[in-house]
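[job 4471] stage=fold_predict status=RUNNING
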Amino acid sequence: MIKEVRKLIPAMALLLSAAAANAQTAVTTAGGEAGTLSYTVGQPFYETAATDAGSLTPGVQQAYVITTVEVGIPETAASLTLEAYPNPTPDNLTLRCEANAALRYTLTDANGRTLLAGDTDSDQTTIGMSKFTPGIYLLRVDNGNVMVKTFRIVKN
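[job 4471] inference complete, writing structure tokens
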């Protein structure tokens, strides 16, 4: 009987010490420089500190949404109506602008290489695409430093 009790003493000591021990705790932080990010897996502890100004719950992910409102959009970019046709095109592409604005176009391939660039000469500009292989191209139209529209052009 005494041998059996002696065998149970280490197990009882281990059980009591485990019950008295604290669970995992961690101080979690987020953010940093150069786009760093830190995180925790699970919820190490849960404790809330609340005041009239707000509450803080460490160890729990709290959503925070930042909304950016863009102001000062140039009126010319908002009032332009652009069309690129025919799309798909076999030879020539026509870029039409209702407002006769000084625009600049850039034609790039799928790899981002600039193939053509130029200024619009009137309300209709013809862009020759007969020398290009069939594929998908991007036609970007700018008004000064402001991007007005990007077209996805299919060349047959």
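[job 4471] summary: Helices lie at 2-20, 75-79.
[job 4471] exit 0
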